[in-house]
Structures are given as C-alpha cells and as structure tokens.
Amino acid sequence: MAGSAVAATLTPSKSQRAYDFIKSRIEDSSYTPGYRLVLGAIAAELGVSVVPVREAIRRLEAEGLVQFERNVGAQVAMLDPTEYQVTMQTLSLVEGWATAASAPHMTSDDVARARAINDALAESLHHFDPVAFTALNLDFHSVLFEHCPNPHILDLVDRGWARLRALRESTFSFVPGRARDSVAEHEAILGLIESNAEPFELELAARNHRLATLDAFLAHQHRTRETP
Amino acid sequence: MAGSAVAATLTPSKSQRAYDFIKSRIEDSSYTPGYRLVLGAIAAELGVSVVPVREAIRRLEAEGLVQFERNVGAQVAMLDPTEYQVTMQTLSLVEGWATAASAPHMTSDDVARARAINDALAESLHHFDPVAFTALNLDFHSVLFEHCPNPHILDLVDRGWARLRALRESTFSFVPGRARDSVAEHEAILGLIESNAEPFELELAARNHRLATLDAFLAHQHRTRETP
DNA sequence: GTGTACGAAATAATATACGATCTCACCACG
DNA sequence: CGTGGTGAGATCGTATATTATTTCGTACAC
C-alpha cells in the first residue's frame, strides 16, 4: 500500500478502519485461514454498523485474502496447494520484473543496505527463528523494489506478500534446507545489480529465486507427508 | 472473469447487476473517462438503492476502472499518459507470461484458429476499421491465453484489457503505421509456438509485441501533438 | 432406522433515513 | 479589484430497519 500520499485523511473512514482491522487480524494470524467472518460480530466488535464492514470484506475479497459466497458469508482464504503454487508463480513474475526495473535506479548505498540486511539474514540462521527470517527476507526484497517505477506492479507484489503473511503460521513456513541457498542467491542478485547485468538476466534470477523457494516448499511438504 | 462455474446464481445480486451495468457503460464508452458517477442517479436508473451501487463502484475502483475520492465521489478513471504507460507495462508482463505458459498446451488446431483470426486481422486493414481491428486483436490474443494454467494472471490480463477498452474512443486508438507490423509479429509468435521455442524466448516476444504497440502509440501521440 | 419435510434461528442483502462533508456561488470587507 | 467568509444545495457516509436466503435441528412418515 505504501502510504499513498502525505495527507492521509485525518479521521479514516469507518470502512477503512474495518479494512485495516480485518487485514491486520489476518496477517497476524488472529484470523486463520478458514475463519468465518460474520458481519454482525465484527461490526459489534468495532462499534460500527455492518455496512462499512461489508465493504471492507469485499475489498479484501478483491485482493484475494478473503473468500466470499453469496448469501452465505465470508471466510479467510484457504490456500490449497494449487492456490499456493499459483500465488507464488504470480509473485515470482511481478517480483522479478520489479527487481529488474528498480535496479537501474539503485545507488551503491541502496546496495549496501540490502547487503547489510542479507548479512543479518545469514546471521539469523544460527538462531533458527523462522519469523525473524521471514521479516528480514521481506526487508531485503523491499530494498530491491524501492525504486520500481510501476506502482501497479508494486501493488501486486504487496498483495502476494500479504497472502503469504496470512498463512505464515499455518501452511507456509521457512524450509530448513532452503534458507542458506536463499541467502546465497540474494548475494548473487546483488552481484548482478552491481555489474549492471542485462535487465532480463536479473529479472530471471529474481524470478527463479522465488520459484526455487516454492519448489523447496512443495518438496518439503511432500517429504513430510510421506513420513508422518 | 471466465464465468467461474456452471451455475451462475439464477438471479444475480443487485450489487452484481450494478457492477455489470456500470462496467459495460464504461467499456462501451457511454461513460467516458472523467464522467462523474453519482450514486443516487445510478441507483434511480437501476431501480435499486444506493448501497449496492456503492459497492459496485468500489469494486470497480479496486480494478482501476474508477477513481474514488472520499466525500466527493467517483468518476471514470482517466489514464494520463503516465498511467497509460504503466498499465501497458503491466499488461505486457502478464500477457507475455500467459502466452508462454499457455503455449505448451496448445493444439495445432488452436494455432490454426489463431492464424485464421490473424488473417482476418490482416484483411481488416484494408477497411481501416479501428474498432473491428481492436476486437479481432483481442480475439487473437484470447486464443493464445486459453490454456494458461494460472487464473490469477489471466485475471490481471483481463483487467488490463478492460482498462484499454474503457478508453478505446478517447485516448487509445489504433495507430495507422503500427497495425501491419502487429500482424506480422502475431505470425512470428505463432511460428515460435509451432517450433516449440524456449519459453523465455516466447515470453519476450509476446512482451515486446505489446511494448512496441505502446511505443508506437506514444510516438504517434507525440507526433500529432507537435503538428496540431 | 432412514430419509424427507417442515420450521425456527442465524445471517446476509437491501432499503430507507439521517447526519456529515464537500462544493460553489454570493456577498461583505479590505 | 481582490480576498475571505457564509450559507444553500448536492452528495457521500453510516446507522437502523426490513426482507430474503440459508442452515440446521426436529419431528414425522415410510
């Protein structure tokens, strides 16, 4: 969302408040996938009427965080493996482009910041803290996107990340063997940026970086399912 | 959108009707960019209350067809040149991927259909009919996307096309010198598909095809602005 | 015992009503 | 002549009320 401008409305509308409320609940896993969102209940909790809550839920539906069924209700989206795969594909596509498009505008200082974060990421491996790892990983990529000139695509990246955050605790998690490779790939990407590599080369590197994470996750899931 | 399932609800909800109504008005240019969407007026015209209309407008806002301002109202989105460029970039990205991802699943019959449409496209050049050209062009690309396995990305393609259709009559138009090249590029893309080219090669070809259209449009606009 | 019909409770969908906010024309004043 | 205040009208934002739909439990028939 990247705080669209200087002056956010002084008093956010109630539908906006409802939107923020529900979204944060989803992202911090207070509402887990499958959780049923009942208009009246949420409205009562927020001290507003159902109309703004309804609007908030439909916005979240448009973003794919919530599933909605006519005359039945809404629930937090459940990403079955197929959904998950599709989301990651989309994210790899837009993330790859955003990285490549941002690279020409990066300063050496930006690269240094990214590298510092990646070092912290490598450090965090010793403590085995998936949550910290995920947060730092987002920070790293955020630096890479910072100068992306296409706000639509940045928006799509945000949405993809929001969906991942939504299932951080349940389905998605940091895959043990994968993290180290991930750090190495980050460094490789930084190298491509510093050497002014061909845009498409960088785009593919960034894309494959995410797809590799997807593959690792799927393989891990498959492995753990076979040996319960 | 791709009619999600067999049984669409028998009686579409009123908010859905409002959504379809407004969207079709935008796409057929009854509502031109900048047109002010007044809740009460549209509600009266449809014989419903303002609540479903409001919901429809906010859905359209999420899709980028409508611009909304708090306590002021909504209007049909106006794509300034920057917006236009950004939309086309995004479209080129997702379209390129969708084409490459769909190609492996295309039958020779699909390719033949696409080629037939492209022939009709070439034929239409003699009549200088931009509207027919645009429609056939969409048909052509639709065949290329048909087997894309990622519904999210297909959705993004749809949204991009919707924005283009919205300004067909006003800003966007078929650029005289460009159409012939476009037909040739279509044929080249079909050639790549038939020869089972590398996915990346096909993706880039499809992407550049659209970016070339963008460039031609911008150049044309620049040219006509200099000699008024 | 199983399946079906019925009805009540829960919930969503929409209508209506009212209050809040913005826009803009008009006028007072410098 | 320009600048800022002020009020009316238009329009949005939300609360409340009403209607429609679904769900689920229960009783009845077979």
Give a brief description.
The structure is a homodimer of 228-residue chains. By secondary structure, chain A is mainly alpha-helical.
Provide key terms for this protein:
homodimer, 228 residues, mainly alpha, Four Helix Bundle (Hemerythrin (Met), subunit A), 2 domains, three-stranded antiparallel β-sheet, 9 helices, 66% helix, disordered N terminus, DNA-binding, DNA-binding transcription factor activity (chains A, B), DNA-binding (chains A, B), transcription (chains A, B)
Strand order of the largest sheet of chain A: 1-3-2
SS elements, strand count of chain A: 3
- CATH architectural designation of the largest domain in chain A: Up-down Bundle
Q: Please state the CA-atom Rg of chain A, rounded to the nearest Å.
A: 19 Å
How many DSSP helices of chain A?
9
Enter the CATH topology name of the largest domain in chain A. Answer: Four Helix Bundle (Hemerythrin (Met), subunit A)
Largest interface: A-B, 26 and 26 residues
Look at the structure and name the CATH superfamily of the largest domain in chain A: GntR ligand-binding domain-like
Strand content of chain A is: under 5%
Largest sheet features of chain A:
3 strands, antiparallel
How far is it from the N-terminal to the C-terminal residue of chain A, by CA? 40 Å
What count of structural domains of chain A?
Answer: 2
Helix percent band of chain A: 55-70%
Oligomeric state of this protein = homodimer
Report the structural category of chain A. mainly alpha
Provide the low-confidence segments of chain A as ranges: 1-9
The coarse overall form of chain A would be globular
InterPro entries (chains A, B): GntR_C, TF_FadR/GntR_C, Tscrpt_reg_HTH_GntR, WH-like_DNA-bd_sf, WH_DNA-bd_sf
Protein name (chains A, B): GntR family transcriptional regulator
Keywords (chains A, B): DNA-binding, Transcription, Transcription regulation
Organism (chains A, B): Terrimesophilobacter mesophilus
